[in-house]
């Protein structure tokens, strides 16, 4: 089933609203809440990706790719490394790799996300199962980033599959 963009946006808004209150019941919280204090822009991107997981997996993959690009740019800035203005995301990853800043598993995650995002942008039609795997990988990536560039006391919560709010109807 194909959802209109407005349906996906409504789903994302319900997801965000679910994170903003506690009515004593089960409240879905973002897997990426640990980013909120130090990197609110990364948190917002990941939170949106979670909201799109079921309603629009292709948008979810796109957001995950955008997050990976932003994260690589932040690492370059933290490490005070220059990249040419015309550098691609792959060029920036190569700079980090050359400097020995990416463990192999992080490099592999960045590769998988980059390829999936390219496919999502150019061909569309990302599967929900693919988006779900990439979302879990993104959580690992952000956990590594937080451990390396954040506070050593920061606790990274275990990943849990986001709740499917796309079936909720607003009329």
Describe the structure.
- Helix 2 (40-52) runs antiparallel to helix 3, helix 3 (57-78) packs across helix 4 and helix 3 (57-78) runs parallel beside helix 6.
- The protein has helices at 5-19, 40-52, 57-78, 89-98, 104-122, 128-149.
- The chain is mainly α.
- Helix content is 59%, strand content 0%.
Low-confidence stretches: 1-27
In helices, the fraction of residues equals 55-70%
Order of helical and strand elements? HHHHHH
Structural class: mainly alpha
DSSP, total strands: 0
Strand content: under 5%
Largest β sheet strand count, sense and barrel closure:
none
Overview in brief:
This protein has 171 residues and is an all-alpha fold.
Task: Please supply descriptive tags for the structure shown above.
59% helix, mainly alpha, 6 helices, single chain, 171 residues
Architecture blueprint of SSEs:
Blueprint: H1 5-19, H2 40-52, H3 57-78, H4 89-98, H5 104-122, H6 128-149
């Amino acid at each position: 089933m194909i959802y209109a963009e407005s349906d996906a946006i409504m789903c994302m808004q319900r997801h965000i609203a679910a994170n903003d209150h506690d009515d004593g019941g089960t409240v879905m919280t973002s897997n990426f809440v640990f980013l909120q204090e130090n990197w609110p822009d990364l948190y917002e991107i990941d939170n949106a990706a979670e909201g799109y997981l079921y309603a629009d997996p292709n948008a979810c993959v796109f957001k995950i790719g955008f997050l990976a690009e932003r994260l690589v740019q932040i690492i370059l800035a933290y490490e005070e490394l220059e990249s040419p203005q015309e550098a691609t995301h792959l060029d920036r990853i190569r700079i980090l790799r050359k400097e020995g800043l990416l463990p192999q598993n992080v490099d592999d995650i960045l590769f998988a996300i980059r390829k999936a995002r390219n496919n999502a942008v150019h061909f569309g039609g990302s599967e929900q199962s693919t988006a779900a795997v990439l979302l879990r990988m993104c959580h690992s990536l952000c956990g590594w980033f937080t451990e390396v560039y954040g506070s050593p006391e920061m606790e990274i919560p275990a990943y849990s599959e986001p709740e499917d709010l796309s079936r909720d109807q607003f009329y």
